Structure formats: C-alpha cells, structure tokens
Amino acid sequence: MGRKTRKRSTLANRAIAATAALIMGGGGLVAVNVYANAGEGRSGGQRSEQQQQQQRQNSWQSMATIDCPEVGNDLREVPRQVKREVARELARMDTQITEAYQRFAEEKWQIERDPRYAQNAILNPLKSKRVASIDRISIVISRFTQRPQGLDRLATCTLQADDNNTFGGGNQNNGNGKDNGNDNNDGDNGGNNDNGGQAGNGPEADDFVDIQDVRPNVREPRQRRNASRGVFTTQCGVNENGKFNPDNVIVAPGVANGAHHMHDYVGNQETDAFSSDDDLARGETTCRNQGDKSTYYWPVLRLQNGQDEQDANEDGGGNDQNVGEIQTPAEVTLDFVGSPVGKVTAMPRFLRIITGDAKAFTNGDANANASWSCTGFEDRQLKDKYPICPEGSQVVRTFKFQSCWDGRNADSANHRDHVAFADENGRCPNGFRAIPQLVQRIVYDVPRPSFGDNGVVYAVDSFPEQLHKAITDHGDFINVFDERLMNQVVFCINSGRRCQ
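Structure (tokenized):
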C-alpha cells in the first residue's frame, strides 16, 4: 500500500516469572529463587557448568520489559487550574520509562552477566526520577485541594517477563477450551521469534493465533421491551488524507509526542496535543455530515516488512521503536448504537472517552478493551492476540466504547471515572445514564503473518516497553457533534431507526 503525504501537527497481572523474579526492597536487588536449583537437573543429578550458565542466561533473557505502576489511574481529583501541569508531569514519567526501557534493551547483555546492573544502572535511577515527578504532582495539586496520599508507593518499577501467557484471551483459551497458537506446529505461528519483530521489541510468533482455532465467544445482552434499537452511522473516511501524530490531547494535553506512538485520525483535522475545545469547534472535519466535528483516533497498524515509513527517524515512529509501513484501513465504520434496556440521552459536547489501555501489558487487563478478529469470523474475538486470518479474510479491530455517563462531567482526573461500561445485562451502574455507544470497526487488508529471519508481521504502535502487544490496543473519542445533530442521533436511536 502506497504511503501518503503526512499532515504533521502544528506543533500486571503477571509481574515476573517465578524463576526470575525481581523484587526491590531496601534499595537493593533480590533475585528470588532464580538459581536455587541451578546444580540440580530434572532427575536430581548435578548439572554441568555450561547448563547452569545457560539457565542463568535464559532466566535473564526472559526479562522482557520494564513494569511501572500507572500513577494517573490513582488520581481522583485534579483541580482545573493545574490539569495541564499534572498532564505534563505524567507525560514526563512516560518518557522516563521509555528512556529506561531503551537502555535496558541496549544493555541486556550486561544485565545477563550481572543482575545487579539492572537495579543499579536502570531501576534505581528511574525510581529517583519517578519520586521527584510524584512529588511535583502532589505539590501542584495541594495548592488547590487536599494533597493526594499514597502515590509514593507507585514509584518503584520492576522488570517483567514476557511469558506469552499473560491474560485471559489467546493462550488462556479465550473461553474456547483450546490453547491457541503456542502448540501449533504448522510453521506459521508456533515457537518464538527471538528477534522480537523487526522493531526489536515485538511482536513475536506467540502473539498470533489462527482465528479458526478460536470458538465463537461473543455474547450480546438480551434486548428488553424498552430497548433503544436504532443505529446512527457517521461516515468520516479511513484517514485517506494521512493525518497522523504521536500526541494524545485527552491524556497528555500540551505535550508533543505524549503517546510515544503514532495515531490515525478521522473526523476533526485540527486535533493535536495543543487543541482547545474552541480549536476543535472551529476545525475542519472529514465526516460527511459537517455537524460532526468529533475526533476519532487510534494507534496506527504497521506492516513490519523491512520498509521504512516516513517517520523512521521521528518521535512516535522509529525513535520510539515503531517501525514499518503504516497501513491505511480498507474500511472504517463508526456506529452509535442504543441500550438493550432503555432509551439513551444526549452526550455532552466535548465529552472525552478513552477505551482500552495503552499499557495493558504491564498494567494488567482491568481496563483492556481490545477486540481482534477476521471478516467472516467476528463471532470470535481475541483480546491479547493478533488473529491469523484465512485466505480471503481481513483483519478487524473493534472498539465498543463506554456507554454510560455520570451525567455531570465531560472528563475526569484519570479520564475514566466519568464514564462506565454497562453490565453483562446492559444496565448502567447506579448514578450513570445510558448514552449513544460508539462502536468503531476498522478493517485491514494485510498479508498473512510469516515468521523467521525474513518474516513479515503486522502490529499496532505502542509505548516501547509494551512490546507491541495486541492487548494494548485502544481508541479515543472527543464528541464535537453540534447540538442539533446530537439530538437527531438520540431520536434516531430511541425510535429504532437506521440513520446517517
């Protein structure tokens, strides 16, 4: 697929494998039971020095990334006057992790030789920087409200293994009773890719699974008598004019390269890290209905085929270990749907919603919301694996955004508390009301993944330390519908119509 001229912006569930756990305490490194049985073979016999050395190397080679607690998730109140200052500090902490991870990757050989090196040269300096950032966040917040408590406990980072068995999708059956991917010996997706993808930090062969090995696992809540059954579709293109940037105006306003990965944009064309609500209201839109100036964005999908993209030496691209050709979607569908239990109410203008978690590989899957599948197989959804699609089938990413709103706030301190998901029966939590739910479906025509020295794979952009894992996929939305069109959306959905 040909490249397009890019519009630039105006400006853990599993901590560490038991055989190689790192625990930080008292400023020192404790390697817990890493070599306790180094002199014993499986039958209890003595192991050779060469075998012991290999075991030590294998233990440290399994340390794949840096795991740092997410400070932003614990912020429950950030005064309006200091929101941008706090966001900049949180973004600085992301940069600290990126820099530490890059040093970890570059000097892994040294860590394998001397485990204390990771603690002394990487983790301790990172902790010191995080302590300073947390202190600055606490100080600025305390100028206007009570100082947040307990953030210091989030300063400590560890090393985390990539055991390719982290979450409840993919390897852990996806509810289908099969161990997907890892035991497939057909040469396509079995075993490991020691190169970690052409980016050097993923994906690996075990990050993919044949969609035909996944049993149907999609369950929809039953439609009640008062359900709002309509659908409003907004047509905003596929980013064919090539608007990209590595910013995130929701999470890191005022910070260039706040995402450390590249985003696709459709809809509002004025969106970057420095966009105000007024900028968005005045912006041009790619949406066919000009009453929708909303911003829709998500991490780009790249084909790691040995070909450099135009951002190979730029932030968000090669500088952040996101390599390969950016793929323009074959199709993007943006539907707003109703509630299975009742009517929906209008969204407030400039409502911000993020769905999924860009750091789910290290954070755990509490906020993960990735859904991967293939055309013709969309009753089978993967959360933590990329699908291998059969001939004639295309890769599909689906985001079902939160459909419940607290009725008061267009955003919240951690960008999550003001919205919520309905429960398995479609009901909103107490105090929340149903709003039109954005369902975003993105289709790609990419070749079937192949592995080995000359293999070609696809992967989403990610923070470098997230290893391009499928579970880190996420989507972002800012509602900039005008009032008249939003009212039409609500009427369409509540009256059971299909509109656009």
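Helices lie at 49-61, 83-106, 108-113, 116-142, 277-282, 360-363, 483-494. The longest strand covers residues 437-444.
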